[in-house]
Amino acid sequence: MGIRNQTQVVEFVFLGFSGILYGHTYLALAFLAIYLVTVLGNLMIFSMIQLKSSLHTPMYYFLSHLSCIDICLSSVIVPKIVVNFLQQRQAISYNQCMAQMFFLISFSGVEAALLGVMAYDRYAAICKPLHYSHLVNTKVCTVLAFATWVWGFLNSALHTALSTRLDFCGVNQIHHIFCDLPPLMKMACNDVHINELTLHILGIFVGGGPFLSIIFSYIFILSSILKIRSTTGKRKAFSTCASHLTVVFIYYGNGTLNYQRPSTGYSLATGTLVSIMFCVITPMLNPLIYSLRNKEVKEALKKATEIWRPSGHHRSLC
Length: 318
Hints:
The protein is 73% helix and 3% strand. The protein has 318 residues and is mainly alpha-helical. The chain has one domain (9-306): Rhopdopsin 7-helix transmembrane proteins (Up-down Bundle). It has a 3-stranded mixed sheet. Helix 7 runs antiparallel to helix 8 (231-259) and helix 9 crosses helix 10 (295-308). It starts with 10 loop residues before the first strand and ends in a 10-residue tail after the last helix.
């Protein structure tokens, strides 16, 4: 059944923006602009990787998946925020709430796992260059990418299934700006011990596992870089990791603030800002980070710009 009778709740009301009384239309336009930049930026990265043969490498293959995830993650959250601002009613139905939470947890988990896989790719490229083509071949890339998606969706399916068993006893006000597991558990009037235990255990594997993979990968990477004698060689080796490290710091920094916040002394306004940073701003920043810090991406963008630059008439793509 979609809506369980004992919940006595058919919709939830978000309180994250409750303090904003005016300017809803302008806020809707601001979030819409961020969403369009996110979609277009990530779509540009994805398309460029598919069309540019020089970017058909494992690193960019995983980056194309990251772009897809960022588009999906933003699409789960931002359009609903825009619609609610335009309607001047911060509400969501029970079924929509469960669906939003399912996809939010799924894509967040996939991104965490993918960042771990990308760290392994950098480790293989820098620490095992002679064996790189064997360690990260086409088959390995496909299996790893598929595993990250399965990893994220299985984790989310279990959390969502447990959440549908929660009773809310008529309470429908969520102290958040979208449906997520922690605020829903706080609203529940029945025992959430199993939900909390599952959240902590799976959190160790889904979030902590990839993070440990990243830490160990970069310990070996740093050790290998320090052994390089030339300054140019060190700089070149580190530059291939700079964009990935920046994305990791932003993702895990915002993710930690969003999901490991203290139970007291944390205002609703602060929580709203942190949630916006994690689910709205971060997906927009990732393509900017890779396009600004990556030499190959910048060169591909430059060539694409030259192709479309008007010079009396457009140059042919053929």
